[in-house]
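User: My collaborator sent over this chain with a note saying "see what the structure looks like." That's all I know about it. Can you take a look?
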Amino acid sequence: MSRNLYVTLPVKNLDRSVDFFEALGFSFNPDFTSENGAALVINDRTSVMLVGESFFSTLSKVPITDPRKATEALFSLSLDSREQVDALVRKAIAVGATEGHAPEDLGFMYSWAFVDLDGHQWGVFHMDVAQQ
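Assistant: Without extra context I'll predict from the sequence alone. Here is the result:
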């Protein structure tokens, strides 16, 4: 098995979080989904486990951080175009997210961010390596 990274995020309401990410066009791997958590598919080799806070508490001996008050991590998604970046962030905001930061155009890279229903920060970007 090759080396992979598995990220697990606590969420207040698993069903609500699943509905939110499905509204953005993401899917979930049913093989790794239960009443405790759901595997959010990023691509064919990457998933993020969304886990209800009560179950998440059994995985760690330290309290769950409120991501609206302290930043533990930032999550970044690369997309194929600026238009896809705009579409995803607009869709996220339309289904309950808030803007994480305004669109930023650095020429070679374009980014925008949203904060999901549980306060996790998602940076969405497109990088044109030909312009670097």
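A starting point for your reply to your collaborator: The mean pLDDT is 94.
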